[in-house]
Amino acid sequence: MACSHSSNCQLYAQFAADASLKLWKQHYCEGVFDQCARYQLALEGKPVPLTLLPNGKIVERRSREQISASALFNAIQKQRVGVVRSLIKTGMSSYELKTEEGFTPLMAAVAVGNPELVKLMLEYGCDPHAKNREGKRAIDMAQESGLTECRDILNKYMATHPPGDAPSAAVASEEAEPEMKEVVGFLRRLNPFRSREA
């Protein structure tokens, strides 16, 4: 039995497309949901803080870049093309951003099957040759899911942009690199079940 509150839980929006969310879902939403701190507060009719995790811990204060990273994946998941474009135009360098499992914004666009978002991610420099931890590229995911339009867009782009020729490297500012490392580090820390030593 799954949690009846999972369909409107704000945790999904915060950690959209992140591997950590899968762990939360398996352990709490689809498992011991009655032990979820968010669920317990909701049952009591109390407000549920956005930063409250199912295990009762509060997420540490996040930087603007970390919030932007979550917002970007959330906007892609909800297929809000205008919001995605706005986030990238306002300085969110998406080409390097990856979740702990190597999931990129381009892969997220493929996962929702949205050709317009796929084109947008390519336009703003996402690397179609990037692989996740399973060794899959965005085009492999499109092929496996039968998303022919997304696959064709990627195929055409990759034919004229070989590996190492991504325009993102040329347009990325050196100042953005430390910020992106901070974002990626934040996404890695979200894994609730990793060992403390890791």
**Name given to the CATH architecture of the domain at 66-188:** Alpha Horseshoe
Structural class: mainly alpha
Can you give the mean pLDDT? Answer: 75
Q: What is the C-level CATH assignment of the domain at 66-188?
A: Mainly Alpha
Distance between the termini: 32 Å
Count of helical regions: 11
Shape: elongated
Number of E-type strands: 0
The helix content is 40-55%
Largest sheet: none
**What's the order of the H and E elements?**
HHHHHHHHHHH
CATH-defined superfamily of the domain at 66-188? Ankyrin repeat-containing domain
Q: What proportion of the residues form beta strands (DSSP E)?
A: under 5%
The CATH topology assignment of the domain at 66-188 is: Serine Threonine Protein Phosphatase 5, Tetratricopeptide repeat
Low-confidence stretches: 167-184, 187-198
Descriptive keywords:
198 residues; mainly alpha; 51% helix; elongated; disordered C terminus
Outline the secondary-structure elements.
Elements lengths: L9 H5 L4 H11 L7 H7 L20 H14 L3 H9 L15 H7 L3 H9 L14 H8 L2 H13 L7 H4 L4 H14 L9
Helix pairs in contact: 4-5, 4-6, 6-7, 6-8, 7-9, 8-9
Walk me through the structure:
The chain is mostly helical. It has a domain at 66-188: Serine Threonine Protein Phosphatase 5, Tetratricopeptide repeat (Alpha Horseshoe). Helices cover 51% and strands 0% of the residues. The chain contains 11 helices and no strands. It has helices at 10-14, 19-29, 37-43, 64-77, 81-89, 105-111, 115-123, 138-145, 148-160, 168-171, 176-189. Helix 4 packs parallel to helix 6 (105-111) and helix 8 runs antiparallel to helix 9. The chain starts with 9 loop residues before the first helix and ends in a 9-residue tail after the last helix. The relative contact order is 0.13. Residues 167-184 and 187-198 have low confidence and may be disordered.
